[in-house]
Amino acid sequence: MYKILQKYFGYTSFFPLQEEIIKEALGQKDVFVLMPTGGGKSLCYQLPALLFNGLTVVISPLIALMKDQVDGLLADGIPATFINSSLSYDEVEARRRSLSNNETKILYIAPERLVMPEFLAFLQGLRVCLIAVDESHCISEWGHDFRPEYRQLKLLKERFPKVPVMALTATATPVVQEDIITQLKLSDCKVFKASFNRKNLYYQIKPKENSYHQILQYLEGRKKDSGIIYCQSRKTVESLAASLQSAGYRALPYHAGLTAEARTENQERFIREDVEIIVATIAFGMGIDKPNVRYVIHYDLPKSIEGYYQETGRAGRDGLKSDCILFFSYGDKMKIEYFIEQMEDENNRQVAYKQLRELVGYCEGNVCRRKLLLAYFGEIFDEPNCGSCDVCLEPKERFDGTIAAQKILSCVYRVGERFGMNYVVDVLLGSKNQKVMQNQHNTIKTYGIGKEYSKSQWQAFVRELIQLGYLKLDGDKYPVVKLNEKSRGVLLRNEKVLLTKPEEAPHIFKAEVFRDDYNRALFEQLRVLRKTIADREGVPPYVIFHDTSLKEMSTHYPRNVSDLLMISGMGERKLRRYGDAFLHEIVNYCKQHNIKPKPRLHKRPESLIKQPKSSTVQMTLELYKQRLPMHEIAKRRGLALSTIASHLEKLMLDGEDISVDSMVDPEKQQHIKQTLKELGMQAMSPVKEKLGDGYSYEEIRLVRAKMMCEGE
Questions:
Q1: Is residue 511 part of a domain?
Q2: Domain range for residue 87?
Q3: How many structural domains is the chain composed of?
Q4: Does the model's pTM come out above 0.90?
Q5: Which strand ranges, in their side-by-side order, compose the sheet holding 31-34?
């Protein structure tokens, strides 16, 4: 497992739970995986796929997501493919032939294709070792993103009774978890739940006042960062995208009103970093695997905490610090209530009101955002300060609010626990509105005793008392405020209550700016190089390397292959394909700026840098140590000269002491080096063509390996 992890994915350790999940899958067991976005779900089925002697089938809901995943796997040297409606008949047939010949390890398909009788029969004829159902919450009617076609996946266990099924999702409440397991008929299923805590995300709620100006303030100094801005309506998406473009930002709209071609093009341009900002409705994002989204802004109120968590989860998938900002207004709340009223099904209406109330409670709260979010998913967060939300980083001043609390609780009692928050506040302020007068609540003791605070301040106190558990809400559309045991302690036993000191003026917009210790100028140069290579290969830049890898390079300044091997995400294939180009950029930058490499604090285990060699490569090494020339080694082993050269190349890159001088004339080496520098080190054919017949591919291969090892 560790050898595969290092060789293909470029890592030396697993994220929490990954190793246990992979072992369970390798033991042919059904597994349910609940892991937040960025937690490493994909590796849970991609790594075992390389250890199984057959095919892993991944069911995925979106075409864009399939292509992204396959591009990434191919870049890592893993034989993967997808079959979907974007392919021609001939392309589908070619991929089916490859599957029949056992040349592919991982196949991505949509649920609709899986259940086609002809395709199902084709799959049953292959050696399927594992089935992974990604975004499995789509199977549940209780989930936030139900898709009817996912319901048909219950046939998996009927048609592939001996094949283990792995269900994966990033968001699922306990009810949804149970439903997924039942619908997929997972037997004796082990459930793995990773923490929902995304430590790298900073959560902030801002009052929605002049929000466009606040966004411009925030974006200043972040022009090169990728971000998503979510809006509720298509109209807002279009106008906000146009305004940002006018202000000099590279922004594009995305919503269901655009043609499918326009949506695909805008999404592709965002993924390929031709633009930095996507302004979108919630139609956007599920198919996005882009790891370096540095901020997600909710310009309008989302509909539920679950949806909000899923959408904010698109930020910082690479584990680097990212911002999640939500603009909150009661106007947005009323808009959502209007849409809820249009629902025909009473049960759906009740659920929608409950979801909205939970979200509004989250926005209004003066309790740690992280604590409230995690509590929604049944996870307890005990830290007194999360250190990464506005409530914890900018704590508001508290005061002894016992008297204010007693006035509120007493008023709730005297109006008979039959009214909502706004009515209670009206009574405290001595309002002469018709309802208060009709109910004769202008005659009770608490009428007009709250004139020391404004209406908005009293409302904030009531919300905080609900958050702190001194009051409870009962009902959906028009919830009634009621007392509980905790409130009686304040009324009858004079227990002290601390409340947040009220403020009238809104905060000046401020988002946490995270500082990382890396060379920004070099990072930008490496980003340009990455984009150039990505455009040439027709893949998104993050398929080449994640920002995390570039930031490590910009921190430690690797100078040779063994240094590069210590960079996270640097697998063997990526080292061979891109290592020299990145080393060249880094070494040149360091020479120009007189920078010395920084030693790493945590070295990769030596056993993982030098992987155990296959027996055939080991035999070549033994003969080399006997000082035999390359052609003699090939003769004794009965192998082609090119095969021996590739063995020696691998040994050099693994850190073995192989002398190229004994095999290639030094003068020839100089000519080969010069040509490689001129034409690039990816493809050898143009280099051989330019050098002519006096040079062999084997010589070019060995000199190239030497250059990579020396960081030239």
A1: no
A2: 2-193
A3: 5
A4: no
A5: 80-83, 106-109, 55-59, 128-133, 165-169, 31-34, 190-193
